[in-house]
Specification:
Length: about 450
Amino acid sequence: MVYKIFSIQILLRIVVLTSSIFFLAWLVFCTTNIILPIAVIIFVILQITWLYYYLNSTNRRLKNFFESIRYSDFNKKFDVNDNSSFSKLNMVMNDVVEDFNKIREAKEEQYHFLQSIIQHIGISMVAFGKDGKIEMINNAAKKLFQLPNPKNIIEFEGFSPIFVNALKNIKNEEKLLIKVQEENDILQLSVYAKEFKISNRIISLVSIQNIQQELEEKELEAWQKLIRVLTHEIMNSITPISSLTTTSLEILNESKNNSENAVCPHLADSLNDVEMALQTINKRSAGLMHFVETYRNLTKIPKPDFKIFKIADLLIDIHRLFKIEMEERKIDFHMSVHPENLEITADEELIGQVIINLVKNSIHGLEGCLSGKIELLSYLDKRSRITIEVRDNGIGILPNVIDKIFIPFFTTRQSGSGIGLSLSKQIMKLHEGSISVVSTPNVKTAFTLKF
């Protein structure tokens, strides 16, 4: 319909223009009047101008239409009330522009929705090109790397050079486990990469998840299962032995009383030897039962009674507990809580027991040290986690055993039981926290509790 009206308009204009030209020719050859031919010439020029403008009006409309699409300017509207032959064409172009606008709005909504999901997800995500330029990074990753707006993965060098090298060399759909030592914290990072192509550029999307807590939980669960099995089997074997030796001693005592009335010195000596042997067996059985009951405590930690309390009050109480012993050993003690009113929701008794175990270890580690020092510190770390730290400058922990100290039964002291640190670790897990250690012998050993 639009094309038909347009054709009629062109035809009429051509007819009028042709007629005007023929009339002008007639006037030139058939009349001597000058004014009338000049007027007709002006009219012909106007007709040509109007025809040119009319023909180009379509191009202008199409040009404006395509430019609005090219530059995503979907606010432009074409006049549909001019009653011209192009009103319906303008209406169609308006509809197309409106459809494009709706598609753009839908894509923008989808983009912002996906951005919101990526920014709020707990797993760290980074997208970067082969040159290391970061295309996208979510809030979890910014929090992990402690960088507000990194531009290139090379900026992660301060976090861990090993991690940056792994990002540079990671392959498509490859999964890595990277251990990162961050001040007093240990991170076990599970890294997974997926490559995709955008505008002839290869982009690597990497997800990073700290699975240190999950690994520790699985490790503790495995140790608890082992301890339950071992203690059960040992108790099943030791209990009847202890019972039988007790019964045998009672029977032996009766026999000795009867043998005293008889004249049989050799029998008496034999009975004494048997009694000593049974007493030894009974004593060792009782000791082993006590040993097993002690290790059963690793699987019988009471459920925490969570309450809000000031950390400073807890640390002051612990200092009072060890004050006399520290003075006798000439240990310099320092305590610091920042901010001073720092509070925590936890089981005060259980957390207090953990700190007591750590302070005891520090005191033992300072044996023979002429200028021993113990520090109890509490503060908010750079990720705003409540942190309690026990430091000393004692003999420390050797590098070859530092990874084993939280294993049940493992100890570096002859008088140690090997359950204190294991128990502390389980208590921290019940509080959804962590315990870690760094040590430089004779310089600094620091056990850190993070909540």
